Amino acid sequence: ESPQRQNMVEKGNPFIVGVLILGNIIILMCGIALYAETVWVTADQYKVYPILGVSGKDDVYAGAWIAIFCGFAFFCLGVFGIVALISSPLHTKYLVLMLIVYIFECASCITSYTHRDFVVSNHRMVTKQMLTFYAAPTAQGRELTRMWDRIMMEQQCCGATGPLDWVNHTSTFRSFYPEGLAPWPFLCCKRDANFVILSPEGCRVGHVDYINTKGCFEHIENAVNSYTWGISWFGFAILMFTCPVMLLAMYHYTTL
């Protein structure tokens, strides 16, 4: 065994070394979990990205891409931290790299959470966007129309806050379909097990037995909240654990 390693073993507190090894193992496992979680977010399982993209407030996804890098980096640094405990020249490199990744992860958490607030607390923005782009013959219009059609069909909801969104406000949809013919999209109509409209006429007149009265904003809100939990709150929990591990590592290395 080299004199340098013998010296480190003599000076290093075995309890602190054990805690640091355990801490770095937890960090590397959390890093893999964060990586997987944020890959799920960027895959957009709820398919609500068009709403954030058109509004220009899609930094929830930007935070996810940063967190993908940070998750993989935390995994690598967890392994590197264990190696650094037995190799003196690596101490400073480990702490500097960990601090850099820590700052990036802070940016990811803050970015995602602040832009989540913009969407979740602003149903009027979502409603206005829907009324503007739904049925519009543009690339953005077609994308948002497909998204709203899918959500209204799958979630059995209508509009952002309810069917009256289409009646109480001017919309692109209304410029193509007169109120007497289609007061709201027929995807708002209740359907049987074969997805056949129960009663087109009952739906047209707004009979509660034949139209979905629930708005879709709740589903959109839950989707964005789920994404933010994965990026911001889980990321924040990792940061809260990593901070004392870094401080303990600094103490340990300064006493060698």
From TrEMBL:
Its main location: membrane. It is found in: Membrane. The chain crosses the membrane at residues 12-36, 62-87, 94-115, 231-251. Signal peptide: none annotated. The keyword Membrane applies. CDD domains: uroplakin_I_like_LEL. The keyword tRNA-binding does not apply. This is Uroplakin 1A. It comes from Gopherus evgoodei.
